[in-house]
Specification:
Blueprint: H1 4-20, E1 24-25, H2 26-32, H3 37-47, E2 62-64, E3 69-73, H4 86-101, H5 103-106, H6 112-124, H7 126-133, H8 145-155, E4 157-165, E5 170-184, E6 187-194, E7 199-204, E8 208-217, E9 241-247, H9 253-257, E10 262-267, E11 270-277, H10 280-290, E12 294-298, H11 300-318
Helix pairs in contact: 2-3, 4-6, 4-7, 10-11
C-alpha cells in the first residue's frame, strides 16, 4: 500500500487509531495496519505536516515517536473514525451473507456471523440494510451433491463422480479423494486428488451429475497440496497453447478476467492479449462470446476455426423462417 490512493484512507484511519491508543508502540501499530516500521514512520512524517488552514504550529497535527512510543495531539478535527458509505456497507453485508451460506460454515454452531450482520446493519443505517437485503445469496450445488461430498469429507472416503465438462460438452467419470470445499468466484468447488488426471483438481458442485461415496478410504498422495484460489480458479498450464487476441474497448474485460501472459495497448482502448488456452473449444467459445469486440490473431489454425464456426452460426440464422 504505497500509492497515494491507498495512503490517504490509511492516514484517515491512522489518526483516529492513534488518538484512541495514546502511547502505542511503533511496531504494534505497524502490525495493525500491515506496514513495515519504515512505512509507518513515513506516514507519521506526513501526518506531522497536516492540519487546518494557516499552517502555523498551532494549526498542524503534533505527533512524535521518540523511543518507539507514538503520541499525537491537536488532531481533534479528524479524530472521528471513518464511516462506511452505503455502497461499502452493502458490499460488506452481501459478502458476509455469502460467507454464512458457504458449505463449511452453514452448519457451524453459534450465531457469530448473524450478530456481525445485525450490528453492521445498525451501524450502516437503513439505506445499506435495504440494499443488501434485496440481494439473494445462493451457493450453487446439485441437489444431492453437497450432502454426499460432505459425507465423503467427514468419513474420509473416496468419491465416484459423474462430472460435466462444458468445454467438451461431455460427462466424464472420476474417482477422487476429497480434501476440502472451497468457494471461489462465487462458486462452490470440491478440492480433491483426481485419479484420472493424477493431479489436484477443483470440481464445481453444480456440475456434478452424480456422486457416490465409496467404501475405499481417501488417501491423497504426498504431493497433493491445496490449490491457491486467491487469483481465481482458472490456472493455465505452461503447456497450454498460447493464443493472441485483439479486443476493442468493449472486450478489455478479458484481460481483467483471465490470467494473461502479455497485454499491450494498441490505442483507442484496444488491446492485444496473449493467454494460454486449455483447449480449442474453450478459446472458440470465448471468441464467439466476444463477437465483434474481439478476434483471434494467432495461431492461424485457431483463427480459421473461429471464423468457420462464426459463419456456420450466422448461416443458421439466415435459414430461419
Amino acid at each position: 500500500m504505497s500509492g497515494s490512493a491507498d495512503r490517504l484512507p490509511r492516514l484517515l484511519a491512522l489518526v483516529p487509531y492513534l488518538m484512541s491508543h495514546p502511547g502505542a508502540q511503533v511496531g504494534e501499530v505497524a502490525e495493525v495496519f500491515g506496514l513495515t516500521e519504515k512505512q509507518l514512520i513515513d506516514d507519521l512524517q506526513l501526518v506531522w505536516m497536516c492540519g487546518l488552514p494557516g499552517h502555523t504550529p498551532g494549526d498542524l497535527i503534533d505527533v512524535s515517536w521518540d523511543g518507539g512510543e507514538i503520541l499525537i495531539d491537536n488532531a481533534d478535527t479528524i479524530a472521528r473514525p471513518l464511516r462506511l458509505g452505503i455502497d461499502e456497507a452493502s458490499a460488506l453485508l452481501v459478502a458476509l451473507r455469502m460467507l454464512a451460506a458457504t458449505p463449511e460454515l452453514a452448519e457451524l454452531p453459534g450465531d457469530a456471523l448473524p450478530r456481525v450482520v445485525a450490528k453492521l446493519e445498525r451501524a450502516a443505517g437503513e439505506g445499506a440494510a435495504a440494499v443488501s437485503s434485496q440481494v439473494a445469496v445462493d451457493v450453487d450445488a446439485a441437489p444431492d451433491a453437497l450432502p454426499r461430498v460432505r459425507e465423503g469429507l467427514t468419513r474420509k472416503r473416496r468419491l465416484s463422480l459423474r462430472y460435466y465438462v462444458p468445454g467438451r460438452d461431455e460427462v466424464t467419470p472420476r474417482e477422487v479423494d476429497p480434501m476440502r470445499l472451497v468457494v471461489a468466484d462465487g462458486r462452490t468447488y470440491l478440492e480433491c486428488w483426481c485419479y484420472r488426471a493424477e493431479a489436484m483438481r477443483l470440481f464445481r458442485l453444480d456440475r456434478m451429475l452424480g456422486v457416490e461415496v465409496l467404501d475405499e478410504p481417501a488417501d491423497p498422495p504426498a504431493e497433493a497440496e491445496p490449490i491457491d484460489v486467491a487469483q481465481g480458479v482458472f490456472r493455465p498450464s505452461p503447456t497450454d497453447e498460447l493464443v493472441e487476441l485483439e479486443v476493442t474497448a468493449a472486450g478489455r474485460w478479458v484481460a481483467e478476467y483471465y490470467p494473461c501472459e502479455q497485454v499491450a495497448e494498441l490505442g483507442e482502448g484496444r488491446l492485444r492479449i496473449a493467454l494460454r488456452a486449455r483447449d480449442d473449444d474453450w478459446i472458440l467459445k470465448l471468441a464467439l462470446r466476444l463477437g465483434d469486440t474481439g478476434r483471434v490473431v494467432s495461431p492461424p489454425g485457431t483463427a480459421e476455426r473461429v471464423r468457420e464456426e462464426a459463419e456456420r452460426a450466422l448461416g443458421l440464422y439466415a435459414h430461419r423462417p
